[in-house]
Amino acid sequence: MPGRPRSTTERARLEARARRMREAGREMNDIVRATGVAGSTLYRWAAENRWRACDLVAEAEAASEAEPPLPISSTSLFPDESRGPESEGLGHSRSSSPGSRLSPGKRHLEEDAPDPKQAAAEHALGLAMTLARTGRLREAEAAMRLADRFARAAADPPMTPEARAAKAARDKAEEEESLAAARAELEARLDRLAAQLRAEEGAAEEE
């Protein structure tokens, strides 16, 4: 027997909660118990509005491919600090900067705020574990790669364009060195194989 029809507002509220739980890596059984919505209905909502596990992985991968925003300099946040001593006479001091007006509690909360890349890595890792438990190994592997990419991005400090160019040059040099070593190893193997074939041919002729 079908249940009571849900209003648009009630469905939106339940679906938003279900999506948040799914994005956090929760399994569908947990979401069914938390929302009271049937699993078939949740799967239908997820398919209609693209928040299935495969959709979330694809969305996170697309977001990770986007160019990271340029870092905000301290002078853009605190312009008074770049004016020099002459600005003191205008009544602009460091005590009037936005950061100094925050209470110690708010400053502490800002300092303890999680890094977005680290949070994304933890989300992708949770999603990978959920996918692996449900047997969707290919999507779980994609989520694991995404989690690793976000974790490495969170561990690496932001680089200036010059630093990025230098790193690219180092990576290219290392790649060329690796290719040269692989080519030398291949040539050595071919030489050994050719020598072995010549030895076998000589032994056959003696017989």
From TrEMBL:
Gene3D superfamilies according to UniProt: Homeodomain-like
InterPro entries referenced in this protein's UniProt entry, alphabetically: Homeodomain-like_sf, Resolvase_HTH_dom
Chain positions covered by the region annotation Disordered: 1-26, 60-124, 153-179
Biased composition range(s): Basic and acidic residues: 7-26, 80-91, 164-173
Segment forming the signal sequence: none
Pfam family membership, one: HTH_7
Molecular function, one GO term: DNA strand exchange activity
Source taxon at top rank: Bacteria
Compositionally biased region (Low complexity): 92-103
Residues annotated as domain Resolvase HTH: 3-45
Protein name: Resolvase HTH domain-containing protein
Organism whose genome encodes this protein: Marinicauda salina
